[in-house]
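Exam revision sheet. Question 4 asks you to relate a sequence to its structure. Input first:
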Amino acid sequence: MFAGLNKYQRFVLIIAWLGWVFDVMEASLFGLTKQQMLKEMMGEAAYKASGTVWESWGHNGMLLGWAAGGFIFGIVADKWGRSRTLILTIGMYCVFTALTALCHTPLGVVFARFLTGLGIGGEWAAGAALIAETVPNEFRARAAAFLQTAAAIGSIIGVFVTMAVGGVNWRFVYLAGIIPAIICLVARFKLETDVPSETERKENPLRELLRTRPYNRNLLIAAVIGVVGITGGGILPFWLPNLVKDAVPADQLTYWKNVTMIALQLGTLFGVLVFPPLTDRYGRRPMFALFGALSGILLFLTATMAKNLTLIFILAPLTSFFALGLTAGFALYFTELFSHRFRATGAGIAYNTARIFNIPVVLFIGIVGKTSVALAIGAVSSIYILMLIALIFAPETKGQALEA
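Answer key, structure tokens:
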């Protein structure tokens, strides 16, 4: 995968990949510890009455921060430089993930997850733009595939961290957030400073993007694709423990929750490796359409049919292969839709602020989930229809050089 890249290009790819690995790891920790955490804070009776609602709010706190971080730090990366923004945002989510370990109320957890999300959203916007502009055009699909393997590997690391120390106390799990600080130290001295031109520093990239055709139209299309892909792709990783809970005895829940999550992320890993090369061969739009349609169908089937461990092990990884596999195309496709002067802003808004629209979906699942999580997920699977509609109007960028 790295053959043909020079030493610095490989270094950039690895640093951005590690940043995203720990992004995803830290984003996954709440889903893995939420039940243990909230039962301790609320008590068994209160958790049974409103636990899934607080689970939704904890997830939504991170989504709000993720959206705000992508919006704010995408603009910062265009005005201040990709590499410096990357270092800053990795440092942010290190500190605020560790802060979660000090929380004693559900509301405190929501606030800590919001602050963590700020760094996570900003890191993706800066990292995606940095990779797209550093590697040669012919390597961008492979770079996107490699970058998004972090979505699976980061989640698997989160599972192993939880298995290793979560049984002692869930607070120890969040202290693992300190580890990525090492990346900041290395990147601080090794990444070249990419200083924007004087004109770029003076210009407002968001304002310029919104008034410039066809990029403003591309932003709308990419945002719809991002909303659907992120919303649909995030459902199973977050709610799978709830489906497993209904399929196994209570004393086996922790074990099977972790094992099924690893199986789910193996499906993700294969999906993100396969999707970008397919878009290079068959085109961005056809592959997004194919993977999106199959994601909706399989998510519905998983929610409504996976009532035992056998079906969960079959359907969950298969769903993840398509639903999270297609997200590997975001770093590739979204950066191709915008010119250099507002690339991080456009890609950051499309990928990260889409999470604002994810919030009502998560709340819907949390509220309806008091009756049936499976029913709620099955209803939400229809969202992929919006992606298919947006793709009708989307430009095809296969084989085109990245705009200067």
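Marking note for examiners. The longest helix spans residues 343-380.
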